[in-house]
Amino acid sequence: MYLGTTPSVTCNNSSRNEFSLIPKKNPLVEFVEKLPAGRSSLCYCSLLCGIIRGALEMVHLAADVTFLQNRLKGDSVTEIGMTFLKMLDEEKDRRKK
């Protein structure tokens, strides 16, 4: 919603704790023309994974968020894989502060 694109969601595992987000449009791609020579391993879009993971932590959900496919790397789609790990204990977080 905040990025101006609505992804489709696919879930292929039976335990329903893993799914993929496939956005129709990746807003970060508009700002990257070509990866620098010798830096083909850079993933500018990893920023999106951090944003999603941080937002989930704010609502007390721990998740592993990674890029599975990336149009900047030549893939046909952009796909973000998410694995739900656990619910964070709100009381423990309050005690740390």
Automatic annotation (TrEMBL):
GO terms for biological process: Golgi vesicle transport. Pfam families: TRAPP. It comes from Tursiops truncatus. InterPro entries: Bet3 (IPR016721), NO_sig/Golgi_transp_ligand-bd (IPR024096), TRAPP_component (IPR007194). It comes from the Eukaryota. This is Trafficking protein particle complex subunit 3-like protein. It is found in: Endoplasmic reticulum; Golgi apparatus, cis-Golgi network. May play a role in vesicular transport from endoplasmic reticulum to Golgi. The keyword Chaperone does not apply.
